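Shipment paperwork, digital attachment
Item: protein structure file
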Amino acid sequence: VAIDASRKLVESEYGKEYLPEKPRMYSSKVKNAQEAHEAIRPAGNEFRKPDSLKKELNDEQFKLFELIWKRTVACQMADARGHRISINIGGGEAVFYVSGKTIDFPGFLRAYVEGSDDPQAELADRETLLPTVTIGQSVDAKEFDPKSHTTQPPARFSEASLTRSLEEMGIGRPSTYASIIDTILRREYVFKKGNALVPTWTSFAVVGLLEAHLAKLVDYDFTAKMEDDLDSISRGEADASDYLSKFYFGVENHGLKQVIEERIKDVDARSVNSIPLGAPQEGEHRDEVFVRVGRYGPYVEQGERRGSIPDELPPDEIDLTRAMEILE
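Attachment content:
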């Protein structure tokens, strides 16, 4: 019903050239997604246009409906077609480079572009549109606008982006994501800074311990496979007691119990809770500097000198220079 309604609207609103020959079908990009309900879409056999509902909805309701309407319609439209091009322009000893694309046929871009709610802005603002030029053509510079660019580190996880990443890896289920995030916050593996989840030194120590001695248990694929096994148990296709017995006691004694008993003696608690920062090349104190994770919180240590790390200081902001300042 939704596909038929979308296709009828595409043909009437945009024309036959925007309508694919066959309906477009999509599968989830998320591993083992539990797709138990229909996609969120405009209701009914015929989709009302957003403008016709403007007087019936408040601003927030209208924006939400318009977003759903655009995405629903765009998913049944033809692909956009264009060319990605790059241009090198020589000027004396300098060479200027620009890349962008030309759009030959807008396709679904007429309705919606991810991250843009203005249908008129989509074709011009999403990427740089370049003029048609030929090799060897002379061009005049109208103006120079120098801009600096630095590569940015990956953004910290927020609760939403962490959940999205877990979904993509097949770890967790909709019913467990909230408890996963609650657990890492409660155990102080992360703390919130605005919307960001910032890892703590405790999490570095725990991950270091597990990766060194129980690497299989923190392997993404192993965890995703365990989620599949738990799904089988919930569907009655496997027995919970048998599964737990094999996991803990193993087959021929190769279970978690034996692994822990064999490796616990190899764990060096001081080493696990130590993160080296290097040694200063100048000054009176030149011993190597470490971050230690202690019972009462993280601290910096150099020889006999120690200094507590402020609670609000995240790990990625502590380098050797900052550590020496804490020790002074």
